[in-house]
Amino acid sequence: MIRPATPADVPAVVGMIHELAAYEKAAHEVRVTEEGLHATLFGERPAAFVHIAEHDGEPVGFTLWFLTFSTWRGAHGIYLEDLYVRPQHRGGGHGLALMGELGRICAERGYQRLEWAVLDWNEPSIGFYEKLGAVRQDEWLKYRLTDESLRRLAELRD
């Protein structure tokens, strides 16, 4: 079963975020809190959305996503920040169902793109996405500012 997250799901989602970060060898980078995630998902102006995969009434996976906008397409899209299914539930169709829900949302709302990033060493995920028909975007390089470099940028003025 796939459903939108509720406030009661926040602790489980935070737990799965920690599990995902450990899998991606980046547990030391996690700073999310239950309070912060709750505000992001259920505050006055939600900035992101979560769908939960359930098995026997328990959360076993999630997607966390937000809206993008393509100037070339002139339409919104979805950026999938995270897709995670707990290891003991992989292979049971939960990942496919979560992705299918995002596809349904795109179709229903007229969104033109569903995009995400995957670590280059994560062969199981790469294979899963390519079986869905996803096309790798090798011509685009990803950049990121965080921490001190982001603070320095904020201090730049004309």
Automatic annotation (TrEMBL):
Keyword line: Acyltransferase, Transferase
Domain spans labelled N-acetyltransferase: 1-155
UniProt xrefs under SUPFAM superfamilies: Acyl-CoA N-acyltransferases (Nat)
Source organism, top-level taxon: Bacteria
GO molecular function: N-acetyltransferase activity
Regions crossing the membrane: none
Annotated Pfam families: Acetyltransf_1 (PF00583)
Similarity annotation: Belongs to the acetyltransferase family.
Protein's name in the database: GNAT family N-acetyltransferase
